[in-house]
Specification:
Elements (H helix, E strand, L loop, with lengths): L8 H9 L11 H12 L3 H14 L3 H25 L6 H8 L2 H36 L15 E4 L2 E4 L5 H16 L1 H27 L22 H12 L19 H30 L11 H6 L6 H34 L18 H17 L6 H25 L14 H15 L3 H25 L7
Antiparallel strand pairs: 1-2
Helix pairs in contact: 2-8, 2-10, 2-12, 3-9, 3-10, 4-9, 4-10, 4-14, 4-15, 5-6, 5-14, 6-7, 6-12, 6-13, 6-14, 6-16, 7-12, 7-13, 8-10, 8-12, 12-13, 14-15, 14-16
Length: about 475
């Protein structure tokens, strides 16, 4: 059996239409947009904006957000075409199976663990930190040793804790959201919608209330002069700022993992992917404009909470707590969507025989891949409870960018080999858009530290061993002559 065998488009569409024993179709176009916004808007907006402004772009960080959005849009347009053509759970894994064959599909499926599972663990630890901060405002203090992994340093009420025992709040949120996902996609989407409303409301409140306090002098110069060092202001600084804030957009691809649960995937998937990107871009640009208008950009240097610093100018103290609540809501919805995306990828891989049947067992009542949800509840909780997130962040980024690149390449292959296949959405300007998507992703991967590449290589090598030891022997896909 060839490791390059492909799944035919007809077999994939047959999977999508087999709704009797598969996942339940409950998600509308609006729910898919909310799913995308839930995955995209995390606390990165509240922190990365200040870093990019202070160190790279100044007030022109708004242009950086637009550039980053354009880079994401290249990959988003490719995802939208595939998601409308192949409305099956599995996202980039499924698309790779149809275009590049089984081995590359396994590679991308294994790679997505970096984006979804480790991403959920990373965000879970950050969620824990902000929960402590919120509780402290109400004079509630949890034992520091139970809120920190053994290899991390945590500062609580001015006291430095050198290594705790376990991060229980991070495990708690991962477990609760995993159980919610078992209960059902519709229920999970409802919770996500509530969280999206909370965090978007706070972002809009920040923009509306902060607008009247903008000091126009803070926009002069709008593009600070380059210091002579590449990436420190000027147009090179705007470009570097775009690379910095790019990661505030990551997550829109998780919408495509829900294709098999969309009511009308041919229409809903492009709307969900591109609609969430558009909404988030508008909010990001307005947020950055207000933030750099309230306080001179250079004052954000080294500031861990630049949004709170900026909003303090308005005197609306109540929103300081509101920002923390918005960040918690943002993190919660990101974890929810990442956990859902991960379970759907492994569900698809198990259906194809590349992973044990355990991962594709559907709950008789809820019609969700409940055993996969339980597995990743434990897996992600271990990372969230015991592993320092500083070691995970770059792995999440490099794994995501690799997935984006392969989806863009997949569109080029599909257009050449199956030009007449029905597409309810077509990526415009092919081959420019896919090639531009690959170029942006490869550039950003190149900018990551060397350790990230080493960890990616080790993780992928482990995946290759598992594929040849189990996946290749148990694959259910029959090679077409």
């Amino acid at each position: 059996m060839s490791i390059w065998k492909k799944k035919s488009l007809s077999s994939l569409l047959s999977e999508a239409s087999d709704s009797e024993k598969g996942l339940k179709r409950t998600l509308s176009s609006g729910a898919l947009v909310a799913l995308g916004i839930g995955a995209i808007i995390g606390a990165g907006l509240f922190s990365l904006t200040g870093i990019a402004a202070a160190e790279h772009a100044g007030p022109a960080v708004t242009i950086s957000f637009v550039m980053a959005a354009v880079g994401c849009a290249f990959a988003g347009l490719c995802y939208a075409e595939f998601a409308s053509m192949i409305p099956v759970a599995g996202s980039a894994y499924t698309y790779s199976y149809a275009t590049m064959g089984e081995f590359m599909a396994w590679i991308i499926g294994w790679d997505l663990v970096l984006e979804y599972a480790l991403g959920a663990a990373t965000v879970g630890v950050s969620w824990s930190r902000y929960l402590l901060e919120l509780l402290a405002k109400f004079d509630i203090h949890l034992p520091a040793q139970l809120c920190c992994s053994p290899w991390e340093t945590l500062t609580v009420n001015g006291q430095v804790i050198e290594g705790g025992i376990i991060n229980l709040p991070a495990i708690f949120i991962v477990s609760m959201l995993s159980l919610l996902l078992i209960r059902g996609t519709k229920e999970s989407a409802t919770m996500n919608n509530i969280l999206v409303i909370v965090k978007v409301s706070v972002v809009i409140l920040f923009i509306v209330l902060g607008w009247s306090f903008i000091d126009e002098a803070n926009y002069t110069p709008y593009i600070p002069e380059n210091t002579g060092v590449k990436g420190e202001f000027g147009w090179s600084g705007i470009a570097t700022g775009a690379a910095t804030v790019f990661f505030a957009f990551i997550g829109f691809d998780a919408v495509s993992t829900a294709a098999q649960e969309a009511k009308n995937p041919q229409k809903g998937m492009p709307v969900g992917i591109l609609g969430s990107l558009l909404v988030c871009t508008i909010l990001y640009v307005l947020f950055a404009h207000v933030m750099t208008g309230l306080v001179p950009y250079y004052k954000f240097a080294g500031d861990a909470k630049p949004a709170a610093t900026a909003f303090a100018v308005t005197g609306y103290d109540f929103l300081q707590t509101g920002l923390i609540i918005a960040i918690l809501a943002g993190y919660t919805s990101v974890i929810l969507v990442m956990l859902m995306g991960q379970s759907r990828v492994f569900y698809s891989m198990s259906n194809d025989g590349l992973l044990p049947k355990f991962f594709s067992d559907i709950h008789a009542k809820f019609r969700t891949p409940w055993k996969t949800n339980l597995f990743f509840m434990v897996f992600v909780s271990i990372f969230a409870g015991f592993v320092p997130v500083s070691d995970l962040g770059h792995m999440v980024s490099i794994g995501t960018l690799l997935a984006f690149s392969l989806v863009c390449i997949g569109v080029l292959i599909m257009r050449k080999k199956m030009p007449d296949a029905p597409r309810s959405f077509r990526t415009p300007l092919v081959p420019f858009v896919p090639l531009a998507g690959v170029a942006v992703c490869v550039y950003l991967m190149y900018a990551l530290p060397a350790e990230s590449w080493l960890r990616l290589f080790i993780w992928m090598a482990l995946g290759v061993v598992i594929y040849f030891a189990y996946g290749k022997k148990n694959s259910k896909v029959v090679e077409e002559k």
